[in-house]
């Protein structure tokens, strides 16, 4: 996909965001619509297993429970790593890439927990891609959070002008147009899964090409273009 230049503007708050879901406990998560769950092609790409080849959401969670032990110990499975705290686990090593993977596993577990365990798994199709509107909505939401909360302002990457490049329809990057290589700030967007009119997105922030904070977004398509329904973690 060719580069698209963005001019981010703060949106009307009623359009930007619905209700933020508390993410402290798996039992508080609302289940996504029952049906086929379309798993993104980049879901856990470091694993030897192809998650898209598994048959159900429950099989994916079982595989996640096993695979996370390669990167962090101290968590018995997805429910434990989501409930946290994250620093209760012991990483395999202190490398930045390992930290990014562990944060990503936690977000994948959060997303999977919001779907029907019996739902069947398939590959994504039309309607599950990362769009310019989705990226704009997520960044505008981040800008709003940073403006309202000091903790978020110190954590979230927000910038008003950027360039979008996509490797495929399920993975895109927004980069600050500062003339530097790599840019001072960039944000990666990866499709975790899609079900019904909702998409779950893995958002990875980077500073000078080095990954840092990772969070998840539940995005719902609507007649107005779409909105952020919830994020995880919803508080630091």
UniProtKB/TrEMBL annotation:
Signal peptide: 1-32
Domain of life: Bacteria
Keyword field: Signal
Name this protein carries in UniProt: Uncharacterized protein
Originating species: Paragemmobacter amnigenus
């Amino acid at each position: 996909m060719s580069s698209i230049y963005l001019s981010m503007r703060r949106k009307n708050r009623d359009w930007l965001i619905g209700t933020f879901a508390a993410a402290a406990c798996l039992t508080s998560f609302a289940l996504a619509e029952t049906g086929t769950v379309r798993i993104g092609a980049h879901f856990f790409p470091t694993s030897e297993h192809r998650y898209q080849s598994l048959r159900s959401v429950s099989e994916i969670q079982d595989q996640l429970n096993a695979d996370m032990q390669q990167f962090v110990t101290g968590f018995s499975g997805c429910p434990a790593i989501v409930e946290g705290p994250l620093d209760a686990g012991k990483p395999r090593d202190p490398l930045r890439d390992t930290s990014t993977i562990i944060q990503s596993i936690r977000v994948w577990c959060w997303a999977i927990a919001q779907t029907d365990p019996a739902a069947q798994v398939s590959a994504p199709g039309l309607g599950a891609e990362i769009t310019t509107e989705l990226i704009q909505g997520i960044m505008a939401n981040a800008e709003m959070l940073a403006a309202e909360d000091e903790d978020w302002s110190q954590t979230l990457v927000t910038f008003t002008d950027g360039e979008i490049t996509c490797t495929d329809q399920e993975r895109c990057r927004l980069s600050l147009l500062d003339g530097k290589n790599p840019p001072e700030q960039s944000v990666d967007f990866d499709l975790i899964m899609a079900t019904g009119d909702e998409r779950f997105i893995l958002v990875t922030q980077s500073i000078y090409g080095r990954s840092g904070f990772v969070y998840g977004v539940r995005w719902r398509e609507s007649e107005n273009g779409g909105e952020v329904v919830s994020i995880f973690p919803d508080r630091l």
